[in-house]
Inverse folding.
């Protein structure tokens, strides 16, 4: 099974992808995670990407397409995968077509822009295992450390209000047209992402027939 999670920054793509990944036994491939690894390792690519990401802009298509192609060639991807944060432009979606990748389902998580700022301002991430929390909606056991691995939770540099607004503009301009792109193929399912976390999860599992 090959699944794409589509949706604005903070819609809940990463959170749902993590749950579906466990349930379906296929890995989540997140270009955001791959890019943040490159930044942490201070690779030339990471250094070049950091200023774009911190400005709320997209990393160039060629760069992310190459990172994704390399990741999908690894062994754990042979029985399917979940794409979280890719494609983000029509050119990236066309690159998947050119690679001969047939996507089974695109889950589009809908959340209104007004909700996004609160979501992202309260997002906390685990630098150890990559788990995502929210200070109010999905807190870790003690609020400070990852429940899974114990690492101290951190806030992303790009989750600041000015950057969030810029990311939303970029999303509407470059990424939202993908809804139509996949709608036309009859593989798009839109789920309401503003419900309680558990309700959004139930809708997602239903959309993917994983209940
Ligand atoms: P979010 O979870 O908020 O949607 P991501 O972790 O997916 O954010 O991505 C963080 C940033 O990394 C993006 O704002 C963008 O700058 C860059 N990025 C991630 N994936 C892509 C992509 N497919 N194309 C271009 N830039 C990307
Ligand atoms: P994305 O990958 O789309 O950027 P995340 O999965 O990182 O989004 O979620 C953004 C923030 O919102 C996180 O702090 C997450 O815990 C929280 N969150 C995700 N889904 C919901 C939901 N349905 N209700 C409330 N908060 C949510
Ligand atoms: Zn952790």
């Amino acid at each position: 099974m090959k699944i794409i999670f589509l949706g604005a920054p903070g819609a809940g793509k990463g959170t749902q992808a993590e749950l579906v990944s466990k349930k379906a036994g296929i890995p989540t491939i997140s270009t955001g995670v791959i890019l943040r690894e490159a930044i942490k390792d201070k690779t030339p690519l990471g250094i070049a990407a950091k200023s774009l990401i911190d400005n709320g802009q997209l990393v160039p298509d060629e760069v992310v397409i190459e990172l994704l192609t390399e990741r999908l060639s690894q062994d754990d991807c042979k029985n399917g995968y979940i794409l979280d944060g890719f494609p983000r432009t029509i050119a990236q979606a066309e690159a998947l077509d050119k690679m001969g990748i047939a996507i089974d389902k695109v889950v589009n998580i809908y959340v209104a822009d007004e909700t996004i700022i609160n979501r992202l301002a309260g997002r906390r991430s685990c630098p150890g295992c990559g788990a995502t929390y929210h200070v109010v909606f999905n807190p870790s056991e003690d609020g400070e450390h990852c429940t899974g691995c114990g690492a101290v939770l951190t806030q992303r540099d790009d989750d600041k209000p000015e950057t969030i607004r810029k990311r939303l503009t970029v999303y509407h301009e470059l990424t939202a047209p993908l809804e139509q792109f996949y709608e036309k193929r009859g593989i798009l399912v839109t789920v309401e992402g503003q419900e309680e976390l558990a309700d959004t999860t139930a809708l997602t599992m239903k959309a993917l027939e994983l209940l």
Notes: The pocket of zinc ion (ligand 3) is lined by residues 126, 128-129, 131, 146, 148-149, 151 (CB under 6 Å).
